Amino acid sequence: MINNNRRHFLKSAGISMAALSSVHIMGAQTSGGINTSKIKAALIGCGGRGTGALKNFHEAAKLLGIEVEVVAVADAFKDKVSKVAKQYNLKPNQVHAGFDAYHKVAESDAEVVLMATPPNFRPIHFAACINAGKHVFVEKPVAVDPPGARKIIEMGEVAKQKGLTVIAGTQRRHDRKYLEASAKIKEGAVGEILGGVISWNMGVLWMNSRKPGMSNAEFLARNWLNFTEMSGDHIVEQHVHQIDVANWYLGRTPKVFIGFGGCARREIAGGNQFDFFSVDMDYGDGVHIHSQCRQIAGCYNRVGEFFRGSEGEITGSRVKGKSVNIEAPQVKHSSGMIQEHVDLLCSIRGKGEPENRAKLVAEATMGAIGGRIAAYTGKVIRWTDLMDNKKSPFYNLTLSPAAISFEKGEVVMPNELPAVPGQEKKWRERG
Ligand SMILES: NC(=O)c1ccc[n+]([C@@H]2O[C@H](COP(=O)([O-])OP(=O)(O)OC[C@H]3O[C@@H](n4cnc5c(N)ncnc54)[C@H](O)[C@@H]3O)[C@@H](O)[C@H]2O)c1
Predict the structure, then answer these.
(1) CATH class of 193-324+363-430
(2) Exposed end of the chain (fewer CB within 10 Å): N or C?
(3) How many A from CA of 119 to the centre of ligand 1?
């Protein structure tokens, strides 16, 4: 019997009742006609994280005594998908290349699909897989514009109705130390959170230059990290993790965004992102979180979160405050990147209500998008502009080329200059 405190902790820690049923997995061969000792999995996006996620999925399955059969893999490019196909000894009819390859995964007999393409594709891939009845692991971020993030929320609701599990790659939510910190905060260890600063400051990541003969689609997909239209810019692509932690610890989303940023150092040939963002995220009730992220080499680097509480403080997962009683998080692995797959599998195979993180990861993504739009446009952006107010010019602000254009072979290069705040025409196209 689980007492109320324990139930509260498990819920607040993000571990479902389904996870508790994990014991049912071990040794059981069938449950309601489903083979519980084996799971068929597929991957869309066979790059660094996709292959890493599939490995983490295997590690998690091993911990739970579940055998994994990879039944389909998809990537925009043959060279990428072939490597994974070889690694998992797949048959040619299980290996799919092209911008429409995800349809084949949706049509496959996979029970669960892992998604790790560039984020602009996530909403259409997620919709296709949920419509096809797949459980899903989605890498963060899950969109690059407000309509995309809302699509994830909408399809997350469809997933709920279908009893499907959705787990996201916001791994701090599955990390033992962060789970413990969240539980302490909920028990009042630092009192009320009054404000904070969240950062992802580091150097520029990678860039792939355009080779002769490359189509617009290929260039953008191979150099996705450097185009806002593909990645959402680094405030969305990387800093989403910290915004997610702020939303989690505060238990709410930001209400108003005011910010600035610019492109001071980055080589802009082959990309259009900002080098830095500084955004005031107003969470209401006088709580302001300073969101800062920078990709400039040779500067002070810091990736993390700090929150000031009325009776203590939090640095990442370290809580300094009153001593409170919490139960140790129920994890099978200390790495959030493996534990997220343990939680995925426990939810799929468990007997409780399936875990569904679609809304949480979409809200973190939307928070990052709100910060970016505030910086790009120089305007005040409200959460309602992004989520509810259809009259707002930001509600339907859609980045182009859209994901579907890649399938149709209609990709027009986006503006290759970074956004200029205060210029109405430019933000309408880019914000
Ligand atoms: N949770 C984390 O800590 C973490 C870490 C790294 C990356 N990520 C996320 O994972 C995602 C992928 O990042 P990555 O580092 O693996 O990038 P990557 O470039 O190494 O891999 C992306 C793959 O997707 C393929 N692709 C592009 N468009 C596609 C399409 N339409 N259909 C199918 N395949 C397509 C590319 O060819 C490539 O193989 C991103 O959203 C990134 O933010 C998360």
Answers:
(1) alpha beta
(2) N
(3) 7
